[in-house]
Amino acid sequence: MKRAPLLITLGIIALSVAGYFVYEKYFQKKIVSPWDLVPQGAVAVYESSACASCIEPVKASSLWEIIKRASFYDKQQDSIQSIVSLLTAQRVGSLASLHVTKKDAFDFVFYIPLNDLKGRQLFEATVEDWKNKKGINYKEREFNGAKIQELSTSTSVFSWVVLKDVWIGSFSPFLVEDVIRVFDEGKESTFRKDLSAVYQMPKLKNDAGNLYIHLTKFSDWLSVFAPGFNLDLIKHFGKATLLDIKAVDKNLVLNGFSIDAPQEVSALSVFNDQFPTSFGLKQFVSNRTILLISYGISSGKDFVSKLNQYPNRNKRFADTLQQLSTSLKVNIGDLYSSINNEVGLCHVESAGEKYSKVLLVESNEIDKWMTVLNTLSEKLSVDTVFYERYSGYEIRELPIYRFPEKLFSPFVNGFDHTYYTTTGNTLILAENIDELKLFLEDIDREDTWGKSVAQNQFLESTLLESNVSLYINTPRIWNTLGESLNEKWKKFLQQNQSLFASVGMGAIQFSHLNQSFYTNISWLYQQPSSRSSETKSSQSVITGFQAGLLGKPHIVRSHVDKTNEVLVQDSSYQIHLISSKGTVLWTKELNGPIAGDVFQIDYFKNGKLQYLFLTEGLLHIIDRLGNYVQLYPLLIKSKQVQFLSLIDYDHSRNYRFLVTDKSGKLWMYDKEGNNLEGWTPRNVEGELFCAPRHHRIRSKDYLLALRKDGKAYLMNRRGESIKGFPTNLDARPAGDYFLESGASSSQTHFVVVSSDGFRIKFNLDGKIYNRETLLKSSLDARFSMIEEVSGKSYCIVRQEPKSLSVINGEGKEVIKNEYIGMNNINVQYYDFGAGNAYYLITDLTQDLNYVYDRQGNLIASPPFEGDFAQLAMTNSDKLLLYLTYQKSLHLKPLL
Predict the structure, then answer these.
(1) pTM of the predicted model, to two decimals?
(2) Which residues partner with 628 through β-bridges?
């Protein structure tokens, strides 16, 4: 065989191939798109749209403004405004990639295609304009053969480079260097290759652009703001998401698809065999909920099967449940099959800036759940089973550490303690019994998402059926989230409060569809200026009377339309009910001044409210129309009344009325006017410094009465002293007292503050647990405790000759007023939730009223002139000041 022709042929082929590669490398123009340059480490990429009109509503939203301000935070925006304008302008084919740059910082890389000479010339002219600006320094440097140009100010550096036909810029120079590395290495390490499956999905044309999110890296970005949050579940919530963006009717909507990576199991994969379900639990979700995660489960059997296969579920949980089932002869595993429709985890706003967890499980066999849980409770409880009836509910304790977590991890965590009850076909579990009671009260009052017009309107704009839904009550979440933020972003939140206040409810939802999950994100917003403009246009309402007003205005709630109304009394002892519009609804004459507070009660247990109050020798119950309830006014034995306390032991509306006189005698009456045994009267032999109160602690009832001289009486329902009481606190308490609830009776304490500067805690055994000296700079300083009006927390007031200070429970000074000093004062502390906490200080010597927010900022200056004042929040979240001044009542909108 002749070898020469074969060799010649092979040589020609080799030369052709070599020639092709030489041509490709040196002569063929390399086409590079912005997508080819996005580094693999990007968290997300925004791709601009060809629809210029579609982006305008998005740019006009407060959400866009928040993103913009956060992106250029700590930069001199006046110096770089032209750069910002260029980067945020809409251009077809342009991209912006999001990157984590530090533990507390993120930045963007902007990619703009330069497809023609005109585009290049425009950029060259723009660069020349940048270079000539005052206060900006220009320099050039080389990296891997590419020329990087930079502009710097005192606070920031902006770098850019042109690679082929793409202009790349960023305020983080090292990110530009990352892009150059990607360009040198080719397309193998790009973001698009990592998310190739989602990149191929269909996209809308008439929208504001597309957002590509790398879900496994998204938690890294969230940790920039709140490093203490547990974000492991988010990290395993799938591989990637592609979302279209649009803004409609002040609602920012992003929808598209989320996918898993091949051969990977994500948290979403647990729902692969589930049909999306409707959101029925909204009827039980308290309006205090700041975050709700709802899991739609159409088949409990398939759910538990996938749950136990999920790699990130701790295998010990299944083993523990199996051991409990075997040893206690109950079938815990069988509970899953009875789950019907939903499991919801509520994060509910609690005292201060904390939250508690409440778990809701919907079941078509609720009796099966109760049988298993009750059996576990009975067999594992030490000594006695914890059991309590409250407002018609039967509450029990399940003494298994983190039982809900064992059932539903990784979707549920926590619950060191578990208390449970049911309503209808829904099981309710909480980690704190007091929080569970508050949650049940909200359900009974219909103060829930399902009964809220505003919440229902929002929910109707979301997916009506889903498998995983995160509902974020944004107006309420900032208060709780603020303490979790690192210092940089906490400061950013404080500086942009009005902007954040304009953001409404939000939802992030996933619904299983074929081999992916349809994804919908919806967020309401208002224009930042809308609330302030509304406030400026609001006018005070003034109601005049024939005689001067006595005491404070008593704010009550109408059971007809849920608006605030006011009860006031004048110097002729007439009381008047005033509507929210300032109209006098009725007037009634009494025998003397009202002693203490006015309470609202549901005497007939029908949802209609009456007013309960005390005058000299008489107990009154009057309905909203101004008529006495039968048997009232009730003649009582005391002629020197001082306090009235309302007691409802188990929230059943079987009320008890506790009357105290100035000598320390206590009478207790039932609704029918009977003076109860043990209280005919119960004598503590000394004047009290505040009204006695009832407390239920671990299903036991206690009544605490504190004398002015520091002697404490803790009694049971019959007025008998608890062992260890009375006890002497060796101090003269001032103001109020506070119950510091713990997980057990031994961890529960009463807290008082003495007038000479001691904070004292004593327990249910009558023992002093702690006596702490409070800081003062003057020997003449006097102190008092002010309990928050709804009992959530307390603050401490310190008066010194040159100033008055308000100190929170952690010892931090919140307010310092240098005009009041040692004057006679009245201080009130309000926490309406959602960060709306206020302090109202009335200088009784000068008849001036100061209103401060929770940061200690004076809301209005000069202070309001008036005799007595109260604060209240309306249904539309407006803050109102109710002020009595001589012969008039003023309703003043503040915020």
Answers:
(1) 0.90
(2) 622
